[in-house]
Amino acid sequence: MNPQEFVMVCVYILAGLLGLCVGSFLNVVIYRLPNEMSLSKPGSHCTVCNYSLKWYDNIPVLSYLFLGGKCRKCKAPISPRYMIVELLNGLLWLACAALFWKDSPAYAVAAAVVCSSLICIFFIDLEHMLIFNRFTLLVAAGGVVAIIVNGKWLEHLIGAVAGGVVFLGLYYGAIAILKKEGLGFGDVKYAAAAGLLLGWQKFILAMLLASVAAALVMIVINRVKDADKQTEYPFGPFLAVGTLVGLLAGDAIISWYIQLLLGNTIV
Ligand SMILES: [Zn+2]
Question: What is the distance in A from the centroid of ligand 1 to the CA of 79?
C-alpha cells in the first residue's frame, strides 16, 4: 500500500465512524426539533421511564444491538429508526468520501452535510409534514460549494430558478384547482435549493425519480388503505430521496443514459 492509498483508507474509516456518531446526533434533532425541545438539554433519556442514558448506552448501532432494541431499565422498545439513521448516515458519509474526496475534499464535506440534512428532512417531513428552513439552507449552501468547486454557476442557477418556478406553479395550481394546498410552501423553497445543489440536469433526474417513487407508493397505499379516506401525504421524503440519488449517482446515471441513446441511434 503506498502512502496515498493509506491516507485514503484513513479518510474512509474516519468518514464512516464520524458519520455514525453524527447519525446519533441526527436522531436527537429528528425527535426534538419538531417537538420544540432543546437539542442539548436534557441529555439522552428513555422517553418512557426517563432513564438517563450512560455513555455506553449511546454507542452508535452497537448499543442498540447489545440492548436488543430495548431500554436498559424499563425494557420499553426503542424505535429501530435510531439504528437505521445512524447506519444510513455512516454509509452516506463513507460514500461521499469515496466519491468526492479525491477531486475535492471541500465538496466531499459539503455533500456529507447535505446527506445528513436530507436524512432529517426525510424523517421529519414523514412524521410532521414540515421541512425546516435550516435544512433547506444547508442544501442550498451545498450548491454554493458545488459552484465554487466546479465553476458551472449557470447550470446551478438555472436549476434553482427552474425548481422555484415549477414548484411555485404547482403550489398555486393546486390551490386554484383543488382549493387547498397540494404542496407545502416548504417544498417550494426546498425545490429551489435542490436545483441550486444539483444543477438543472441532475435536478430533472431527481424530480423524475421523486415523482415516480411517490406515484408508486401512492398506488400501493391506495390498494392497502380505504380508497375513500382522503389523507394528506408529505412529498418531502420523496424529494429527499430523489435529491440523494441525484447527488451521489446523478452524473453516472445521466452519462449511462446518454450512452444508451447514442448507442441506439448508431445501430
Ligand atoms: Zn426506559
Answer: 12
Q: What is the CA(65)–ligand 1 centre distance, in A?
A: 16
pTM for this structure?
0.93
Q: Distance from the CA of 230 to the center of ligand 1, in angstroms?
A: 36
Residues with CB under 5 A from ligand 1 (ion): 46, 48-49, 51, 71, 73-74, 76
Instruction: Say how many Å lie between the CA of residue 51 and the centre of ligand 1.
Output: 5
What average pLDDT is seen over the chain? 93
Region class of 172: left (phi > 0), else alpha (psi between -120 and 50), else beta:
alpha
- 9-47: pLDDT as tens digits: 999 999 999 999 999 999 999 999 999 999 988 889 998
How far apart (Å, rounded) are the C-alpha atoms in residues 164 and 158? 10
Q: What residue ranges do the domains of the chain occupy?
A: 1-102, 130-267
CA end-to-end distance (rounded Å), the chain: 44
